Structure to design on (83 residues):
């Protein structure tokens, strides 16, 4: 614990190093946030594909599905690989 306390004190005394650590911490937080958002987006897309495929199996047209779920027709086509 004493070594950690000493290292923290040294960093706080050197404002340049403190700024480097703060910048690094902020960058890491941004990267984590971006990775989380990408993961959410992939999960959302997979769910949209499932929904569109279920709607197609019920006999709905791509145009009707587009209207019902609020996506552009081209986006619906991309989801089912008909682009």
């Amino acid at each position: 614990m004493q070594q950690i306390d000493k290292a923290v004190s040294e960093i706080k005394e050197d404002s340049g190093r403190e700024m480097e650590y703060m910048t690094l911490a902020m960058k890491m937080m941004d990267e984590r946030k971006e990775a989380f958002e990408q993961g959410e987006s992939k999960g959302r897309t997979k769910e949209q594909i499932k929904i569109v495929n279920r709607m197609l199996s019920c006999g709905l047209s791509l145009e009707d599905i587009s209207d019902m779920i609020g996506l552009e027709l081209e986006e619906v086509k991309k989801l089912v690989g008909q682009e």
